[in-house]
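DATA CLASS: polypeptide
GOAL: derive structure tokens

***
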Amino acid sequence: MKFSIREIQIPIPNDYAQIANLLNWVLSEKTNADLLAEEDAKIPAKGMLHKTENGLLGGFDRYRIVAVDEVSRIIGYGLSWRAPWTAGGSSIMYWWWNRAAATRV
């Protein structure tokens, strides 16, 4: 299976709907496109990263990508973020894959 990686497209609702469908396969708490859009609206679109006086990464930001197949279906979703409460210098990354797609990739 061929796939490509691209940034999530906001505010295109189709990305939200496909991501929600994917997350509902792997997470116990169900979601939908509207809930994802509401969550996004609460987070600043532009991050503010900086280096601390100790040279560590500080501030906040997020980066979201999707893996899409040959017909533009989202088969994977990646989320990376840095938040003020995350340990200095670190960020968090999660990937969720459609199980059927992951067995073919």
Q: What stands out?
A: The first helix runs from residue 13 to 26.
